[in-house]
Amino acid sequence: MTAERPTSGLDLDLGLLKRGGLLLLVLLAFVVRLPGLTAQSLWRDEVDALRFSQDSLGTLLSNFSRAGWNGPLYYLLLRNWVALAGQSEFALRYLSLTFGVLGVALLYRLGRSWFSRQVGAVAALLMAASPYMVWYAQEAKMYALLSPLAVGVLYLYRQALERRDGRLWVGVVAGAWALIGLHVMGVLLIPVLLVLLLAWWPLVRGGGQRQAALFLGLCLLPILVALPWAWQMIWRGGNIGHAFVPLPNMIIAMLYAFGRGITSTGGLWPIGLVVFMALAGSLLWPDPNRLIEDVQAALAGRRRTVGELAHVAALWAWLLIPLLGLLAISLRVPMFVDRYLIWIGPAVFVLIARGFGQLRKRMALLASLCLVALLTFNTWAVLAQTNTPIKSDFRGAAAFVRAQRQPGEPILFHISYVRDTFEYYFGPVLPAADGIPTDAQTTPESVAQALRTQLSRPAGDPYPVVWLVLSEPEMWDRRGMTVAWLEANARPELRAQFARVSVVRYRFDRGAW
């Protein structure tokens, strides 16, 4: 029997220090995300999420099999969250903040498991400070939930293959189902899991293949629910409002996202740092000769263990397969939006973290300068996102109209789709009217007739004053026909410009119609 080594005070101190370091990373993620939680006004997608979440339970459940519903599981989750926390801006977005912070802790665990404690810590630090991750942790949508789910599934997947524990496999399947339910593009995680099975094949030798095949098959079940409408849409092809984006542009968009967030802060410098350190994390090895032997063994099928090479390959599969999958779908139905693939970001952070570790062994000063510079750019970008109005400022627009509008004056919403967002801040609007959607065949006469009808009292005489709330008019009226008619037939008395929202009060001269 081997005697156990007594635990020294130093061991306890180191253990507390390590746990304290993770706690500090989680606290940092929370502190970075909290101040800007309500800095931006809610935009129409967030208010839509609130509206959808208040549908009946039957409607919410039926949305899982209806076309056009990207995240039915999120609306179901938000329904229960709103019942608990309320409908304020802070409450709606706090759910995303919570999951954003959780993702930092999970990424630390994955990085530590696949590589080392240092890689896990640096990756978690990068995710905590990432302006892109911060932005979506401050939005009442499903995107902040996607990354922690993807990280959790991939961490459990590696453990399940190695330990062949059915309980771990249940977690993998449940996580994959949840990811697909939260956003339809979560289905692209399934081919990632299949490719990782090849990268980690030594783990399933000797009887694990059947178990892996069974549970990976179960991961596919949610696809069957959406298959009738999804297959029909892809088979027919078409346009759902997104332009086709070629692969190089997709890659550039994702580099911008994970390098500098949603602003242009720092120019190309943060992008260059991300590429440099990610390549360092992919190409630098402690022993190049050992790497060559590992590659030869993998190609010959003689590999018996899963080491850093397989995990670096897994990170690249995590990055590239979803991009290629979305490209393939977009060849039939263009639908690339960078936030749909937010959950590949953690792979970038882990590659950068490994690159920092490998550079540090060779050029410690360069590694430290690169990491400090990247974190500095991140901090700059987070501050810019917090202090600059970026989302449509319906909060400011509603406050302005409330202060200036007289009772009974109608509000014309152009596009009408933004009325729900305006009313979130203003309250119910009566009387209200909708702008006129136009296309290439629409004539000025038809617009004029429709607006006269919209802006007339029930008795038939026109309102003397109308308020115009204008936001994203190009979605309805590229030629600006509604605004042109108002400018030609009424006098603008008051104008106010907010981020992505304009407000104008028009007065009609007597007999102008």
Secondary structure: elements and pairs:
Layout: H1 9-33, H2 44-53, H3 57-62, H4 72-85, H5 89-114, H6 117-129, H7 131-136, H8 143-163, H9 166-182, H10 189-199, H11 208-219, H12 221-236, H13 247-260, H14 269-283, H15 288-300, H16 308-330, H17 345-362, H18 364-387, H19 394-404, E1 411-414, H20 419-426, E2 432-434, H21 444-454, E3 465-470, H22 481-489, E4 490-498, E5 501-508
Describe the structure.
The relative contact order is 0.10. A 5-stranded mixed beta sheet has the order 2-1-3-5-4, sandwiched between helices. By secondary structure, the chain is mainly alpha-helical. Helices cover 63% and strands 6% of the residues. The N terminus is likely disordered. The chain is elongated. Helix 5 packs parallel to helix 8 and helix 14 crosses helix 18.
So how many helices? 22
Q: Low-confidence spans: pLDDT under 50, at least 5 residues?
A: 1-5
Order of helices and strands: HHHHHHHHHHHHHHHHHHHEHEHEHEE
Number of strands: 5
**What is the mean pLDDT?**
90
Please give the order of strands in the largest beta sheet.
2-1-3-5-4
Main sheet characteristics: 5 strands, mixed
Classification by helices and strands: mainly alpha
Through-space gap between termini: 101 Å
Report the principal-axis shape: elongated
Alpha-carbon Rg, integer: 27 Å
Question: Approximately how much beta-strand content do the residues carry?
Answer: 5-15%
Helicity range: 55-70%
